[in-house]
Amino acid sequence: MSSRDNIFSQPLASVQDFCFDQQVVEVFPDMINRSVPGYASILQTIPQLTQRFVQDNTKLYDLGCSRGAATLAMRQGCEQQSGCEIIAIDNSPAMVERAKQHIDSFKTTVPITVRCEDIVESEVDNASVVVMNFTLQFVAPELRQQVLEKVFNGLRPGGVLILSEKIRSESAAMNELLIDLHHDFKRANGYSDLEISQKRAAIENVMRIDSLETHQQRLTNVGFSQQSVWFQCFNFLSMVAVK
Ligand SMILES: C[S@@+](CC[C@H](N)C(=O)[O-])C[C@H]1O[C@@H](n2cnc3c(N)ncnc32)[C@H](O)[C@@H]1O
Ligand SMILES: O=C(O)C(=O)C[C@]1(C(=O)O)C=C[C@@H](O)C=C1
Prior knowledge:
With 243 residues, this protein is α/β, with parallel strands linked by helices. It has a domain at 39-168 and 207-242: Vaccinia Virus protein VP39 (Rossmann fold). The protein has helices spanning 22-35, 39-53, 69-78, 93-104, 141-154, 172-188, 193-204, 212-222, and strands at 59-63, 85-90, 112-116, 127-133, 155-166, 226-233, 236-242. It has a seven-stranded mixed beta sheet with strand order 3-2-1-4-5-7-6, sandwiched between helices. It is globular and about 50 Å long. The chain starts with 21 loop residues before the first helix and ends with a strand. The structure holds S-adenosylmethionine and prephenic acid (PRE). S-adenosylmethionine (SAM) is lined by residues 20, 32, 64-66, 69-70, 89-92, 95, 118-120, 133-135, 138-139.
């Protein structure tokens, strides 16, 4: 696993904007498992979804790969396929360094390339499977449609986008309920009220979350003909969209 996340456990004079630096890289698996309800279930299902949608002689993309957990899950689902390669992209140099080490420690028949790039700039082509597992939420809202257009254009017919996101509810009461349930989940996983509130302040400006309706509309706008939420726990969900 990784070291325990105690980044926000002591009172901070001022809480800086959250970023994926070396300190976060070191604790990332522990942080995401204790912070995102259903993260393990989503990772467990990625091989199954990959297997259903992967096509011979295509590329699979993991956009915002962090330490490569979803990359390796995708790889499990395409080992029997011929001519496939996986491209994992992240714009944090520290994450990319760790992802390379992590991926190299597993033997694989599927070639995997890890690139340090901004997914707003990177190319997507000849793709059958694209995973964005809690990444689009960190892209500036005005650039999200452009990123999804690029993904849609780079997918082959029948290809899939697996998009996982934290969401807000359009109803104030339901939003409050889902946030409370999420905070109870974090408390049950050992985070203190101080850690929860400092983390919340740190991500506030860098993680501007959309509603489910906004995601659905955007996917329709870029051209996806089929889409469904296939997993949700509190205010965290995962969708599939098929070209
Ligand atoms: C919550 S983590 C993703 C977790 C990972 N997909 C997984 O399943 O374990 C978000 C990642 O997206 C990366 N990221 C955020 N904005 C990005 C961008 N514009 N281009 C590339 N990577 C980005 C961050 O560096 C971070 O590693
Ligand atoms: O900790 C929170 O409250 C979160 O929103 C979790 C979340 C995410 O959704 O990506 C935020 C930042 C970290 O990368 C890990 C998890």
